[in-house]
TrEMBL record:
Catalyzes the ATP-dependent amination of UTP to CTP with either L-glutamine or ammonia as the source of nitrogen. Regulates intracellular CTP levels through interactions with the four ribonucleotide triphosphates. The lineage of its organism: Archaea, Nitrososphaerota, Candidatus Caldarchaeales, Candidatus Caldarchaeaceae, Candidatus Caldarchaeum. It comes from Caldiarchaeum subterraneum. It comes from the Archaea. CDD domains: CTPS_N (cd03113), GATase1_CTP_Synthase (cd01746). ATP binds at residues 16-21, 73, 243. SUPFAM superfamilies: Class I glutamine amidotransferase-like (SSF52317), P-loop containing nucleoside triphosphate hydrolases (SSF52540). Homotetramer. InterPro entries: Class_I_gatase-like, CTP_synthase, CTP_synthase_N, GATASE, GATase1_CTP_Synthase, P-loop_NTPase. This is CTP synthase. UTP binds at residues 15, 189-194, 225.
Length: 547
């Protein structure tokens, strides 16, 4: 068995430079050559996982099958390579220190002074190698943050050591840094990139490849400068420039020769790259023949990264219908303040309320759901978007006037959504929700069954509340259908409203399983419904897969 190779991706100049998509593209370039590829995202913050971070500042929490609450870059790895990641693919300072301190308390280091080098760095290396175990060909390790950040130092030190321990031919350092283009002169400015390379060198890491992140493809002069000051051949300088379709990036880097360069540098034995399927997906993205307008009604509207998987799942579904999905973010707090603003929704072909937490903006979301139901605009509700659809239905159809979720009103007379029983004594917030992939039984003769065409599906969850069993009968009597339940029949997983064109909501998060070439059925159904309703079809017809 050949030795596992490690590709380390660092970032420079600014954060959010697109390291995640570059790392995903590198993985894609390797996997189309028949290599088994795994990923690690290192997050140097002290939180143990992303679950307690505000999605407004940090972006979406991506949930893995095993219930890891991880960084959103794991979502990109999954979408680009059509793989399943797990909690071990996301390493944080919090996890590393937790482990080292627990060992120290157990007495594992008895007599020693426990230090960042070697104890912390050893633990980082152990966690990285854990992912490479069992014959993985390549592990792509993305180091979050920017070269020079104080909290990133132990991680950079650990990967510096890995070059020594694993050997030159088994390790590769890729540095991704911003190269701004000046509007006035049209010049690409490489100085900041040069400084960040120097910062890495100071730590003892000489990049093998530099990826300039720029709005347009860099010119010859910029490439020459980057190579000269980065001490690299020009063939080791690549450019990741702005693209309309993010899934095109691996093809762009491949065209620039990245695949060939990495294969030679790491002395990999590979097959001919097989890009045909991926090319087909990208070309479908580029040649859509219709547009569908979707409103996502939520709280964090300024930063679409808070719902990145939702957005991508909509785009994947659109591509399958040869449609581009035009997404508008509707701030439900504004609707709460001025309820008549909800009428803006008349402009949309579909309405989606995504996952969410807490009181703020919740009443606005309920108004959006009411609008969708009363005007029969296709509706997809995700997690909180399902729970609030129940609240809306209970209030306005079942006549339970002050129905609510106890998450938004603890005193509600009709707590139609309530804490899961096993959550009642849980106080700690980290990793304590109902999390990860769980089986769901889909009822026959329902919209959900028409979409999934399977009786058992597995989907990822992240919630503390559920449909209160005390209200099942009332809700069902008024026409709401529970089309998916947990295997023990105790938990509502999918709801739908039969008389409507498309009104479906899930307790789980289907977006985490959507892929550019494999749209998730509920999203696909939703986008198809929005398109069909728009052109005046009488009723919803199941979509056919074209990719
Ligand atoms: N806040 C709700 C709950 O905890 C919904 C969670 C979500 O939308 N992910 O159950």
């Amino acid at each position: 068995m050949a030795r596992t190779k490690y590709v380390f991706v660092t970032g420079g100049v600014v954060s959010s430079v697109g390291k995640g998509t570059v790392a995903s593209s590198v993985g894609k370039i390797l996997s189309v050559r028949g290599l088994t590829t795994q990923f690690i995202k290192i997050d140097p913050y002290v939180n143990v996982d992303a679950g307690t971070l505000n999605p407004y500042s940090h972006g979406e929490v991506f949930v893995t099958d095993d219930g890891g609450e991880t960084d959103l870059d794991l979502g990109w790895y999954e979408r680009f390579l059509d793989i399943r990641t797990s909690r071990i693919n996301n390493i944080t300072t919090g996890q590393v220190y937790n482990e080292v301190i627990a060992r120290e308390r157990r007495g594992d280091y008895l007599g020693q002074c426990v230090q960042i080098v070697p104890h912390v760095t050893d633990e980082i290396k152990r966690r990285i190698r854990l992912v490479g175990r069992g014959g993985v060909d390549v592990v792509v390790v993305e180091v979050g943050g920017t070269a020079g950040d104080i909290e990133g130092l132990p991680f950079l030190e650990a990967i510096r050591q890995m070059r020594l321990e694993e050997g030159y031919e088994n390790t590769l350092f890729i540095h991704v840094a911003l190269v701004p283009k000046l509007k006035a002169t049209g010049e690409f400015k490489t100085k900041a990139l040069q400084h960040s390379v120097n910062e890495l060198r100071r730590i003892g890491i000489q990049p093998d490849i530099i990826v300039a992140r720029s709005e347009a493809n860099i010119d010859k002069e910029a490439r020459r400068k980057i190579a000269l000051f980065g001490t690299l051949p020009e063939e080791a300088v690549f450019c990741s420039y702005d693209v309309d379709c993010i899934y095109e990036l691996p093809l762009i880097l491949e065209e620039q020769g990245m695949g060939r360069y990495i294969v030679e540098r790491l002395r990999l034995t590979t097959q001919e790259p097989g890009w045909s399927r991926w090319r087909k997906v990208v070309s479908l993205y580029k040649k859509t023949r219709q547009t569908v307008k979707i409103a996502i009604c939520g709280k964090y509207t300024q930063l679409s990264d808070a719902y990145v998987s939702v957005k991508e799942a909509l785009l994947h579904a659109g591509v399958n219908m040869e449609a581009s999905v035009d997404i508008t973010w509707i701030d439900t707090e504004a609707i709460e303040e001025e309820p008549e603003k909800v009428n803006i929704l008349s402009q949309f072909d579909g309405i989606l309320v995504p996952g969410g937490f807490g009181k703020r903006g919740a009443e606005g979301k309920i108004l959006c759901i009411k609008y969708a139901r009363e005007n029969d605009i296709p509706y997809l509700g995700i997690c909180f978007g399902m729970q609030l659809a129940i609240v809306e239905f209970a209030r306005n159809v079942c006549g339970l006037e002050d129905a609510a979720s106890t998450e938004i009103n603890q005193e509600a007379k009709h707590p139609v959504i309530d804490l899961l029983p096993e959550q009642r004594n849980v106080d700690a917030k980290g990793g304590t929700m109902r999390l990860g992939s769980l089986p769901i039984y889909v009822k026959r003769d329902t919209l959900a069954y028409r979409l999934y065409r399977q009786e058992v599906i597995n989907q990822r969850h992240r919630h503390r509340y559920e449909v209160n069993p005390d209200y099942w009968e009332t809700l069902q009597k008024h026409g709401l259908v529970f089309s998916g339940l947990s295997p023990d029949g105790r938990r509502v997983e999918i709801i739908e409203l039969p008389g409507k064109f498309y009104f479906l909501a899930t307790q789980y998060h289907p977006e985490f399983l959507s892929r550019p070439n494999k749209p998730e059925p509920t999203y696909l159904g939703f986008v198809k419904a929005a398109l069909d309703k728009k052109i005046g079809l009488e009723s919803f017809q199941e979509p056919q897969l074209v990719i």
